[in-house]
Design goal:
Blueprint (H helix, E strand, L loop, with lengths): L5 E3 L7 E2 L4 E2 L4 E8 L4 E2 L4 E11 L4 E2 L4 E3 L13 E3 L4 E2 L4 E3 L2 E2 L4 E2 L4 E2 L4 E2 L4 E2 L4 E2 L4 E2 L3 E4 L4 E5 L2 H30 L1
Parallel strand pairs: 1-4, 2-4, 3-5, 4-6, 5-7, 6-8, 6-9, 7-10, 8-11, 9-12, 10-13, 11-14, 12-15, 13-16, 14-17, 15-18, 16-19
Antiparallel strand pairs: 19-20
Protein name: Carbonic anhydrase/acetyltransferase-like protein (Isoleucine patch superfamily)
Pfam families: Hexapep
Organism: Novosphingobium hassiacum
């Protein structure tokens, strides 16, 4: 791990990061966080699992400057709102993802905000700059945009294929960055 990555144990919980994951310099990963195989967490991201947990599935990526957090237990919601990110998920640069579920192959656009108690179903997409407010659910293969976000249209097979090419790109690019960084720290 690069020396400019902070892995912080909090409340007896230490982040668990799969050995194949790429964690870029500048990242801060705190508390009850689990990062799966071939995940990439890009430069200057914060993943803060302090009052609940964060789980990120295989091959997903969290792009530069994004923040992932959780929501505390509360009356009527004793489990609170963890952040659960499925497999093959794309999260764009500078996104804010908070106490929500993003199912497999979901997409969060650049600068988008996903608030607590929301769900992005499989192959669903929140457009760049959009804000998904509490209690909303993006259906499978739906594109939502705006502030607050609203349904725009269904996604085509071509759009879904493009998203999966993006996932493959980030897996390969993450491994290239990891090798370059490891080469620099070993020299």
């Amino acid at each position: 791990m690069h020396p400019d990555v902070s892995i912080i144990t909090l409340n007896g919980k230490t982040p668990r990061i799969h050995e194949t994951a790429f964690i870029a310099p500048g990242c801060r990963i705190i508390g009850d966080v689990e990062i799966g195989p071939h995940v990439s967490i890009w430069y200057n991201c914060v993943l803060r699992g302090d009052v609940n947990h964060i789980r990120i599935g295989a091959r997903s990526n969290v792009q530069d400057g994004s923040v992932i957090h959780v929501d505390s237990p509360a009356p009527g919601k004793p489990e609170g709102f963890p952040t659960i990110i499925g497999e093959d998920v794309l999260i764009g640069h500078l996104a804010m993802v908070h106490g929500c579920v993003i199912e497999d192959r979901g997409f969060v656009g650049l600068g988008a905000i996903v608030m607590s108690n929301t769900v992005i179903e499989r192959d669903g997409m929140l457009a760049a700059g959009a804000m998904l407010t509490g209690g909303k659910r993006i259906g499978a293969r739906q594109l939502w945009g705006g502030r607050p976000a609203a349904y725009m249209r269904d996604l085509t097979d071509a759009a879904l294929a493009d998203m999966q090419r993006g996932v493959q790109h980030y897996v390969a690019n993450g491994q290239a960055h990891k090798a370059a960084i490891l080469g620099q720290t070993e020299a």
